[in-house]
Amino acid sequence: MPVYTLPELPYDYAALEPVIDPQIVELHHDKHHAAYVKGANDTLEQLAEARDKESWGSINGLEKNLAFHLSGHILHSIYWHNMTGDGGGEPTAADGVGELADAITESFGSFAGLKAQLTKAAATTQGSGWGVLAYEPLSGRLIVEQVYDHQGNVGQGSTPILVFDAWEHAFYLQYKNQKVDFIEAMWAVVNWQDVARRHAAARERGDSLLLAP
Ligand code: MN
């Protein structure tokens, strides 16, 4: 019985047009995301086998594979829900996401400050990576992380609430080499209701994650 399963897309392949082409959404979810789910399950099996046999020759590679595939599965699971065909704009109190809007202003000075930093972080990834807006539980602030692959260059304990996939598979069929154009277009499909729910859940969990009782 596999531990991880590929979640259904919350919309059809064409729901994010014209920002993301249906063919990209289909391949990205059905092939790429599926491969990370399989990779995480396979790696857990291999680790169980290593424990059974007390055979630890591959432990470094297995732990790296677990971090890579599991983080890929988690980031993509967030990514699909972070987007909607009815998204975009700025989060505001009038839309019921005032706490998120306030947190963005407190942490980045303004929404424009967040937008500039997250756009730049995602668009300048070297090789494969992500731009991530995360809740950092020690300070209670929001931070931007520039993630290498799926799992590198992140601070422990932070929770991703808005993720921009900057791997070539996320845009190349449509945007070719213009990664910055893709990242800038992404803002038009951000589902702020979903981001606000993730922010609220991370704040609740953060109180018990690292702080003394
Ligand atoms: Mn991807």
TrEMBL record:
Its EC number is 1.15.1.1. Pfam families: Sod_Fe_C (PF02777), Sod_Fe_N (PF00081). It catalyses: 2 superoxide + 2 H(+) = H2O2 + O2. Gene3D superfamilies: Fe,Mn superoxide dismutase (SOD) domain (1.10.287.990), Iron/manganese superoxide dismutase, C-terminal domain (3.55.40.20). The keyword Oxidoreductase applies. The keyword Metal-binding applies. Residues 4-84 form the Manganese/iron superoxide dismutase N-terminal domain. Residues 98-198 form the Manganese/iron superoxide dismutase C-terminal domain. Keywords: Metal-binding, Oxidoreductase. PROSITE patterns: SOD_MN. Mn(2+) binds at H28, H76, D165, H169. One of its GO terms (molecular function) is superoxide dismutase activity. It comes from the Bacteria. It is an enzyme of class 1 (oxidoreductase). Destroys radicals which are normally produced within the cells and which are toxic to biological systems. Belongs to the iron/manganese superoxide dismutase family. This is Superoxide dismutase. It comes from Streptomyces doudnae.
